[in-house]
Amino acid sequence: MTEPATVIEFWYEFASPYAYLAAARIDRLVAGAPVRVAWRPLLLGPIFQRRPGHASPFQDAPPAEAAYRRRDVERFAARWGIPLAWPRHYPRASLLGARVALLGGDEGWASAFSRALYRASFVEDRDIAEPATVAATLDGLGLPAAAILARATQPAHKARLAATVEEAMAKGIFGAPSFVVAGEVFWGNDRLDEAVEWALRPEVRLPRRPPAR
Amino acid sequence: MTEPATVIEFWYEFASPYAYLAAARIDRLVAGAPVRVAWRPLLLGPIFQRRPGHASPFQDAPPAEAAYRRRDVERFAARWGIPLAWPRHYPRASLLGARVALLGGDEGWASAFSRALYRASFVEDRDIAEPATVAATLDGLGLPAAAILARATQPAHKARLAATVEEAMAKGIFGAPSFVVAGEVFWGNDRLDEAVEWALRPEVRLPRRPPAR
After folding, report:
1. Shortest CB distance from A172 goes to which of B51, B68, B185?
2. What pTM, to 2 d.p., does this model score?
């Protein structure tokens, strides 16, 4: 019997450049380790809608902060050799991609599909809101695009994605990318390495209620 | 002749727990390297006041996000062995501390004073808004507390701190802690190591306008 793998839940939104950066690295970071990455697509729209007085931190940021975030993404991409070309239109509607990726999670192709769709958006500047782009991405992976798109847009499946967003919020998730390891939430691409360390080395995990000091 | 040291500007706010974490590490990180840390106190209040519709990301965050940030600070502190005990009252008024630290920047004791004042707030749970706490912190460093407090509260010096905040914003700073290396802004305690790397290894610096890809 093999030891059960520790799971890293990877919660991502196709519109998020920081989630793209995490998607580009996460599988490689745990390659060969007894860790399984669960790719969990989510939508930030419904989460941000419930922030009173707060909309998207990206879209509504003051100019200095918005410019900083772009530069920060560029620095990270350059440092890790991740290709990046800013989409002409931003953010792009990620709903269809998320619905398809949710199916991929059931069937074992969420990682390959999601990485390919991120590349379409953040490297090739294609409009991932278009069904044709999503279909071409599925085709490129040898997956039956027409059948998948039909299933992804069925009412029951749409409702399942909505329920997934509720599940994420119930776990304490409020942004993307987020990672969950043994119930612990890590928010932001810059916490990916910490989340991996928690998965690989349980001895680093901080107890929930630290002793009084 | 010795080579001129690269400067890391360290912009910090005494109310910020993330700035406390950075203050606890920054001098150690560059010890022995040809790098000088310029401790630059600032106030976030005037910066946040100019965010339309945005107040403090800490105070006005939704509950899940606020709880996450506390936990994130605790994880980082535990990982790096930085003592931490949450103040009973938060945030504490940092104005007097910033005025005093600005004097310390002129006279070479900003680092020692600032680290001690952070400890007073985030380890010893003392009210750093009280002149008595600031005075005791100066005393503990063998500095002439009464004379320093008198200078720190003169109108011209108050105006100088206000001008410092303008200087920070002109550089593109919108939060704290921030680091500036060779004109490049890094925001957040989690970017400290990257800022240090830029200071120590100019070859990693990303040009401002990356070539088209």
Report:
1. B68
2. 0.93
